[in-house]
Amino acid sequence: MTSRAGERSRASNEPRHARPLRVVDLFAGAGGLSQGFRQAGFDIVAGSDFDPDAMATYSANFRDAAPVVGDIRDEDIRARVLDAASGVDVVVGGPPCQAFSQVRNHSRIIDDPRNSLYREFVRIVGEVKPQAFLMENVPGMAQMGVREQVQQDLSLEGEYVVLPQLVDAADFGVPQTRKRLLFIGVRRDLNLDPPTLTGTGITTLVQLARRTDNPTRYLLQAREQLGTDLGAALADPFDSTAVTASQAISDLAYLTPGRREDVLEYELPEADSSYQKLMRSDNLSSSGLTNVSVPRVRADTVMRLEAIPAGGNYRDLPEELLERYLTGDKWGPHNGSGRISRRHFYAYRRLHPDIWAWTLNTKADSVYHYSAHRCLSVREFARLQSFPDHFQFTTDQRRGLIPGRMDGGAAHSKYRQVGNAVPPLLAYAAAQAMSSRLLQSATGDTPSDRRTSRKRRAQQTR
Q1: For residue range 51-99, what is the model confidence (pLDDT) as tens digits?
Q2: Low-confidence ranges of the chain (pLDDT < 70)
């Protein structure tokens, strides 16, 4: 029997790009990076994560990829990851990085015990030596000194050319503003520069402005001169350059709170936007649309949502709706004041239909629908993250607190899986840029080759 490593070793001797570029996804979660790279034509060969529920989702959606479930710091798990990654072209992943040490503190983040998972990513890249890698992380890593440290760590003493860049998912057609710091590295012997991702830049030009007239409302406001093309794209539901919340989920507005059925067996209404058509493409109609159950909503919450305009939040509530219990239905802990305790910007926050969503977190009640008085379904969360409708979120069927499982139940796990993911359309943009750049190596169209060609042409014209 031929081993997986042996098969890939032979495949690595094929002419570069005669086959799809192969990817291994570390700290994969549900598979946002993998989905984007698959959409760009890459072959996803393996994914690894500690969370068994996230890996159940990963396995269900990437059936040809080898799932490796467990702590990558464990020698056996690391060995399985290295075996699966043998001969791959690209390593991707988003390792948790809990401590941001500054250069001025004379402490490197790779040496901090809290950053051991980040250290494993660097270690795997160093052992696999792929043509390229992509590491994503939170924008906080861009602070002074940290980004430079990470860039130096990932360069592996000059073996890779590494380019860090801060991007916003909404600039790449995702209906959600979500800033991520990407580190794209290319092996130096390929004589290629890492690609730079260029989005629309529309997120820097538009914001919601709060109008305190009667009634209070939120309207789009241009921070700077908004180009004609971008303005038209935002308003046009059949232009996917910039996508709003309503363009993403309006066809699911009829879902009702308390809906327990998690599959729609019947056809959806006609798509209201090109984005909805894109999300529906390749969905298997025979299996229906999954992840459409909606959490119950309390009568108190409905009363508050009725008073909050689209785009609004807690601060739009009148004084009488700040009481802890409005209907006599007492639930959950209270702070003894008789007032609601959720007094922060994200409390009771409603989407606005005419602009993208803010950054989603991992909880169902972190966002409310712009017109319906309810939370969103997991499917609507997934739409705002740019996961296609055929992508199904599930959990490990084993019960109880199995190793790696976070407490909270299956429903919460699915919201967490979506909320923690890299938006696939952002990953797709990165994958396309990396594929185009690596293709230059296969065709000989490298920066060095272009310089040599220009020099020869100059000599010929003398």
Answers
A1: 999 999 999 999 999 999 999 999 999 999 999 999 999 999 999 887 7
A2: 1-18, 101-106, 144, 226-228, 283-287, 332-333, 335, 341-345, 442-462
> Does residue 215 have a cis peptide bond before it, meaning omega lies within 30 degrees of 0?
yes
Residue 424: what residue type? Answer: P
pTM of the model: 0.89
Task: Dihedral sign for Cα 450, 87, 64, 73, please.
Answer: negative
Q: Could you tell me if 66 and 4 are in contact, meaning their C-beta atoms sit under 8 angstroms apart?
A: yes
From the DSSP assignment, how many helices (H) and strands (E) are in the chain?
Answer: 14, 11
Instruction: Please state, in angstroms and as integers, the Cα–Cα distance from residue 216 to each residue in 213, 302, 307, 308, following that order.
Output: 5, 18, 10, 8
What is the spatial distance between Cα 103 and Cα 350, in angstroms, rounded to a whole number?
Answer: 40
- In this structure, the dihedral spanned by the alpha carbons of residues 197, 202, 204 and 205, taken in order and rounded to 10 degrees, is 150
- Find the helix or strand (DSSP H, E) in which 172 lies: none
What does the block give as tokens for 198?
């260029």
Task: List residues with catalytic annotation.
Answer: 97
Phi/psi class of residue 269: alpha, beta or left (left: φ > 0; alpha: ψ in -120 to 50)?
Answer: beta
User: Nearest 5 degrees, angle CA 248-CA 220-CA 379?
Assistant: 15
